[in-house]
Amino acid sequence: MSEDLASAAVPAHTTVARGSRNDNTRRHNLSSLLTAVHYGGPLTRAQLTRDTGLNRSTIGGLVTELAQLGLVIEDSAAETGAVGRPSLIVRPDRRVVALALHPDVDAIELGAVAIDGTVLARRRASVDAPPTPQDAAAFAWEAAREIGQEIPGLRVVGAGAAVPGLVAADGATVVDAPHLGWRGVDFREVLAEALTLPVVVGNDANMGLRAEWSFGAARGVDTVVFLNGSASGIGGAALVGGRMLRGGRGYGGEFGHMMIRSDGERCSCGRSGCLETVLNAERLDAVAHDDAALDALASTLADAIANLECAFDPDLVLLGGYLGSLYAVRRPLVDARVEELAFRPDVEDVAIARTALGGNRLLIGAAERAFAALLQDPAGVALVAL
Amino acid sequence: MSEDLASAAVPAHTTVARGSRNDNTRRHNLSSLLTAVHYGGPLTRAQLTRDTGLNRSTIGGLVTELAQLGLVIEDSAAETGAVGRPSLIVRPDRRVVALALHPDVDAIELGAVAIDGTVLARRRASVDAPPTPQDAAAFAWEAAREIGQEIPGLRVVGAGAAVPGLVAADGATVVDAPHLGWRGVDFREVLAEALTLPVVVGNDANMGLRAEWSFGAARGVDTVVFLNGSASGIGGAALVGGRMLRGGRGYGGEFGHMMIRSDGERCSCGRSGCLETVLNAERLDAVAHDDAALDALASTLADAIANLECAFDPDLVLLGGYLGSLYAVRRPLVDARVEELAFRPDVEDVAIARTALGGNRLLIGAAERAFAALLQDPAGVALVAL
DNA sequence: GTTAAAATGTTCCCGCAGAAAACATATACC
DNA sequence: GGTATATGTTTTCTGCGGGAACATTTTAAC
């Protein structure tokens, strides 16, 4: 609501924007508060009053409603040393969780992620062959049951799945996950039926960036380009003005298939010179002890970053997986070449960083997607006992 | 407010979202209605009632307020043939205008654009040397004065300027417009002082896409990549999920400096193989009668489009200027190569189109930027007699 | 220790927003 | 000309946040 005008989204022209009612106001304010404690951790009611600009009494009513919904807990203040009556501390109730599933070639993993972003429990199963959607769903059900017995009192908002492959914009259909062998699968339906929960499915790189944005290295940054090097190739994602780049069909951010060498080799996708054919895990392993070859790969990475910078002008370029490793060992070279290639006048602002969340990244990101509905309408989403 | 959850923007984490009040509701609804008639032309109150989901009586009150503000006009219905009392027709008041300025190398142009998107009047001055910011502002003042005398009763919301060059995200500073020789100029201040109006400054390609999105070939499309070929190079812009791509500093969408040939020539920007060094107006003119060379340039264009598609997954790729002309004469080749290179599984959805608004594009786009504040808060923006 | 000052929580009342119902009006159809 | 239908208008009602007054809890001053 309070965005700057320059980038404010004008409502779509073909469809008239929905009218707003008083209860939308209430929903918006409940959402603002729950979102604030979700990302910002424990906050006092006084801080919430200042930050939202709402009245003390209004904040009181809103927080009370959130507490009655079982979403936040109010604690007496710790010693602050400040004059005046101490403000109550509002923190998210960690018994509110989302399930996060990550099916991959060699393992399936499920986690229960609390509303404050902490991973409360996880289950992992190694597999010999890539799991089918049904395998993944069955494992999710079993693992969720175990976690529910281990930690009593959990209330689940839904489940998110991070799938290595193309996922349609509907958040349901895995269009093509070549390494898993999934093609045109409505994985949302499969998983929702197994868990009897609302499910949202997304691409793994997108989920990863979402996690780093919420709780990791891209926290609070508005415009981010993410490149993640994994065994299955290079995953890409972008955050544009505080929103995930999705694209018309959901396939946006496939930077691994950006053409980076016009004379490059044929890629599995049918094109030539794709970033991930020039710079991939095998090639990196093969030249690990060849300084000149490493330099060449680092230079390729810098070319890709420079290209993405002139398209997106990000505040931050985030590197994960083997791309993060490569950056770590060739940071001066990459930085220098990016700066040299940078089209932008104020190159001193170019920021490149490695991911921060490690093995929890995909679980946290998938859970974030599942939490989105609750954060947007705290009073309108039903929680289910696990 | 009624977006799908998949791409819903989660409020920034570091800053707590502002609280919402009842008057925000009113503002939102006024904005929805004015925006609807701005883009959708005359609409009946009955249609507005259905589309917004608001109550008849509420719509009545809102429309009355907009009419009292002098922003819309209510007309008796034309013959519809339908049973029942005819609904009043709501249309934007065309006396509400924005000024639009386009300073370029060889000319300066100013237009008065009505709130329905029509260009009511324009003034153009050819110049021998690129104008200074002060030249442009002085011309704007003089031309505005003339138009004000020619068409009495106009009420101005503000002015927008489309500048061929890098404009900072603040909507004020021209960071570098090489062809004009402007560098680090606060053109907003210069122009605002001359016109005594609120001013917003933007990049010409961004303004162009905004215009085509509002009233042209990209109307109603949510995700668009725009490439415009002009004498000063290739301008780029993108619309991502209904929002203009801006980037952290405002330099997003510079697709002309995307590296398209890894072995290409040096570009003026310091990099090599930039799209606009491989494919530019001079080169296109030079090979206009050489079919093979034209094919090669068309193929380069297709490569660029394919790259942008894998990054943005747009619903539409929009081509303007000489790139539109090139596409017109080599459409089968470009289409085929884009489809061949397309990474996306459902390539049948790739849409490429030429721009539709012609010489009015930049004026309309700049005016749109100026109208944005009014559309967002119809009751909160003061109009000034021209 | 007592009192004052400061900050916050709580309660009650007000104004404003849109919803809903009742009523008024304008058209088409028979 | 009467009726059905759709829409504009007026009135009443509910819900939300603001704000003032009061209550509570702390620190600081004496």
From TrEMBL, chains A, B:
Family of the protein in this entry: Belongs to the ROK (NagC/XylR) family.
InterPro entries: ATPase_NBD, FAD-bd_PCMH, ROK, WH-like_DNA-bd_sf, WH_DNA-bd_sf
Species of the source: Demequina litoralis
Domain FAD-binding PCMH-type: 120-336
Entry protein name: ROK family protein
Family matches, as PANTHER family: BIFUNCTIONAL UDP-N-ACETYLGLUCOSAMINE 2-EPIMERASE_N-ACETYLMANNOSAMINE KINASE, ROK (REPRESSOR, ORF, KINASE) FAMILY
Pfam families according to UniProt: ROK
